[in-house]
Design brief:
The N and C termini lie far apart (65 Å). It is built from one helix and seven strands; from the N terminus they run H-E-E-E-E-E-E-E. Helix content is 12%, strand content 50%. The protein has 100 residues and is mainly beta. Strand 2 and strand 3 form a beta hairpin. The chain has a seven-stranded mixed β-sheet with strand order 3-2-1-6-7-4-5, with no helix packed on it.
Length: 100
């Protein structure tokens, strides 16, 4: 009986009901707000707003980077999880210094 309950618990925990919905946005930074650790990214004609979390990973040239490395007009790729109506960035990768 214990084995059956354990198997059921494992099946429930690994089900898609607990899957995290990750969205990837690739675009250009249009605004950086250091005080709020917030960036705005334009992609396909739409503005996306991202608020960095304590665990957001920022990468440039394959190495960890500080928030102040983010600049307007940089090309970035953002992997974010949907939390309600908000997108919380999990990983932000700086792809190019500027697009101009």
């Amino acid at each position: 009986m214990k084995e059956m309950i354990l198997s059921l618990a494992i099946a429930l925990l690994s089900s898609s009901a607990f899957a995290v919905d990750i969205t990837t946005v690739e675009g250009t930074i249009s605004k950086v707000v250091p005080a709020k650790k917030e960036i705005y990214v334009m992609a396909e004609g739409k503005k996306h707003e991202f608020y960095f979390q304590e665990n957001t990973e920022l990468v440039q040239n394959g190495a960890p980077a500080a928030f102040d490395a983010l600049k307007v007009d940089q090309k970035v790729k953002v992997d974010a999880k949907k939390v309600g109506r908000r997108l919380d960035p999990v990983k932000v990768e700086i792809l190019a210094e500027t697009v101009k």
